[in-house]
Please model this.
Amino acid sequence: MAAEAAHGEWSPARSVAGRRNPWTIIAVISIATFMVVLDTSIANVALQHIAGGLAASYDEATWVITSFLVANAVIVPISGWLADVIGRKRYYMISVALFTLASLLCGLAPNLAFLVAARVLQGIGGGGLAPVEQSMMVDTFPPAKRGAAFAAYGVVVIVGPILGPTLGGWITDNLSWHWVFLINLPVGLLSLALVTIFVRESPALRKERRKLLSKGLRIDWQGFALLALFLGCLEVTLDRGQREDWFSSPMITTFAIVSGLALVTFIPWELTRRDPIVHIRLFARRNFMISNIFMLLMGVIIFGTTQFIPQLLQEVLGYTATNAGLALTMGGIATLFVMPISGFLSGRIDPRYLIAFALLTQGVAMWNMGTLDTQMSFDDAAIARLIQSVGLPFLFIPITAAAYVGLDPRFNNQASALLNAARNLGGTFGISLVQTLLARDSQIHQARYAETLNPLNPNYEKAISQAIHVLMGQGMSQIDAARAAVAQLYRTLGQQASMLAYIDVFHTLMFMVFASVPLVLLMHRPRKSAGPAPV
Model:
């Protein structure tokens, strides 16, 4: 079996289930992932309440999000190395415990600085969970069963961000922002208890760890520092860029330059190390590289739309946080039903076909969202999200089915970490892209509309006259009615300009998705014996 593992074949000696039913592992390790994925999106909804509760401006409060993303981005790529060195189960439990403790500190935070520091700890704890869980899954399930297993696990990763805004909206509307973080405490403690009971560290992995440490532990501190600079500065650049007006800001310019220099230095450094902290050579495999590109795109789609669809409903149509989140719920329900189908088909159909189908579905969903207008109903928004959510499972599982083709099991931790890093970076790129396009396109559309609103435009004069007449009929004086009519017209103008900006973003995402479809043709087809691979 060891020989098989060395040549890229599955070995039951690496299973974390031991003699227990391996399906119990899915339920046990999914608990912590759901907690972290949910927390990533739930805090966005509560941001205004956090700012008000801590006497901070909204712009200052956004560091609550940025700090988490930076810490998370830095830890995810090296989580595979940490799991190899510390021991996978031990590292996993440390991560769960740190995330849970940090959640308590967040909920009790007396000021913004304390909350930001606690969020950094949360990001460090949460960043290592998903990659380790996924490597556990690939070691526990043989190739023929991985499609179904990772379909069940994939529900957590996709549904978490979808349900996050709904739950976050309800908590902030009915309780307080503190409970956005305190809700993690019972979940984290339950996860620790179940992992202690059900998850084992396999003898094969213990043997590999002893062999690794027997050579003398050489920590690639320089590589870690370069990676932290690259990802940390990149996250700050993307997350703060729009607020700071991008490269007109010395801060953003400095962070971007440092990030670029760190990346340029990091790649050759890691390629020449005997024990690199990140195995960049994995990207030399065509399937793995293209799968990471698709995972990056999936992050853009999931996190970008999950944030800005509720934003559209709240800012343009005046929905409450709860109702805006509920508009995404139908998509979550659809994902729950479709994910098992995706897992079933992943072991029977060439994953390249499923990826192409999923990308085309996403493109159609973005086109459909681009047809919405200010007269759309709640049902229109929910159905638009439903169409998008139906295609997501067929993107999630097949991408990784192709990514793990031919990989040595010894690199499972590293491969899972890099795929998760790609998805997280995609989420940051998506949110940054969406917010930048929204701000700029909204200004452009508003300026174009404003050019036509002048007394020389007969349509403008007619609209103002009609509004004044209606308002005077409601008891206003002519002067007050005139002022109110102009204000009413400009509110409508702003709403229309914002809606057009959202439509532009949907079209941009649509073109990005359709442009990526040809990459499927460059992927190698997995061997029939390989089966579906993990997420």
